[in-house]
Amino acid sequence: MWATAVGVARVRALESERENALFRDPLARAFAAAGGLWPDSAPLPDDEAARRRRLAVSFSIVIRTKFLDDLVQEASAAGVRQVVLLGAGMDSRAFRMDWPEGTRLFEVDTAVPLDFKESVLREERAVPRCERTTVAVDLREDWPAALAAAGHDPAAPTVWIAEGLLIYLPEDAVELLLARIGARSAAGSRMGLTLGSRGVIERFGADATPGSAASLWVSEMPDDPVGWLAGHGWQADTRTLRECAAAYGRPISTPPQREERPGGLISAIRR
């Protein structure tokens, strides 16, 4: 899974080099290079369908990164001073974003990606712009206890980010994750999720290369994500990739293949 996180870093590095980049991630190139994905990655299938799928996935990573950047900044502006990144991977928000004084950011992931990440950060002499704490724990284990031991305060509002994570978890694991987040979320907490849109596994995962990210996808969004999250105590709003892309000046030119359902970019507030 950490190799997938390095692949995401490569996408962010490429976006950062654009003149009209939606964000700048100075560390992304270093992560990609250390993981062997910069400047060139391994040979890829050259058929047109595979190329289109890669471009679509890369585009979605760019849009979701911008969406969650905005969500975190809005939460900070509202006074939230705790941030938890679940399945943090190569996320560098602690280093690339401006944080209000007193912000504490927790990166939760397994030891392998966190150790790899720390080696790159040391090499780059990167300095976080907030108080940053890593929590090495598998999300299938008792991560709330590990997070509490690291100093997270459940009595204070938190912004939770699960970016590109839930699609890899079976339905029962997703439900458990949401229940655990809710148990540590004070009123006013925020949450940003990315969910696999309905049909995405059929379109991208059916003929995916074994071991690739898409081959590991198992979970799609519920038919009514707003209602689903309301049942977990969250007031949610959904956006489609197409809606966000247009708002960010990157409109999708191709028409939707079918009637678009609720979007997989989720922002929510704890009631």
Count of separate DSSP helical elements: 10
| Global morphology | globular
Number of strands: 7
Largest sheet: 7 strands, mixed
Oligomer: single chain
Spatial extent as radius of gyration: 18 Å
What is the SS-derived class?
Answer: alpha/beta
Spatially, the strands of the biggest sheet line up as 3-2-1-4-5-7-6
Low-confidence stretches are none
Spatial separation of the terminal alpha carbons:
33 Å
Give the overall average pLDDT. Answer: 90
The share of residues in helices is: 40-55%
Strand content: 5-15%
How do the helices and strands follow one another from N- to C-terminus? HHHEHEHEHEHEHHEHE
Pfam families: LCM
EC number: 2.1.1.-
Protein name: S-adenosyl-L-methionine-dependent methyltransferase
Keywords: Methyltransferase, S-adenosyl-L-methionine, Transferase
How would you characterize this protein structure?
- The chain is of the alpha/beta class and 271 residues long.
- It has helices at residues 2-16, 28-34, 48-77, 93-96, 111-124, 143-149, 171-183, 200-205, 225-230, 241-247, and strands at residues 82-86, 104-109, 131-136, 159-162, 190-194, 234-239, 265-270.
- α5 (111-124) links the parallel β2 and β3 (131-136).
- The protein is globular and about 50 Å long.
Secondary-structure blueprint:
Layout lengths: L1 H15 L11 H7 L13 H30 L4 E5 L6 H4 L7 E6 L1 H14 L6 E6 L6 H7 L9 E4 L8 H13 L6 E5 L5 H6 L19 H6 L3 E6 L1 H7 L17 E6 L1
Parallel strand pairs: 1-2, 1-4, 2-3, 4-5
Antiparallel strand pairs: 5-7, 6-7
Keyphrases for this structure?
40% helix, EC 2.1.1.-, SAM-dependent_MTases_sf, 271 residues, seven-stranded mixed beta sheet, alpha/beta, globular, S-adenosyl-L-methionine
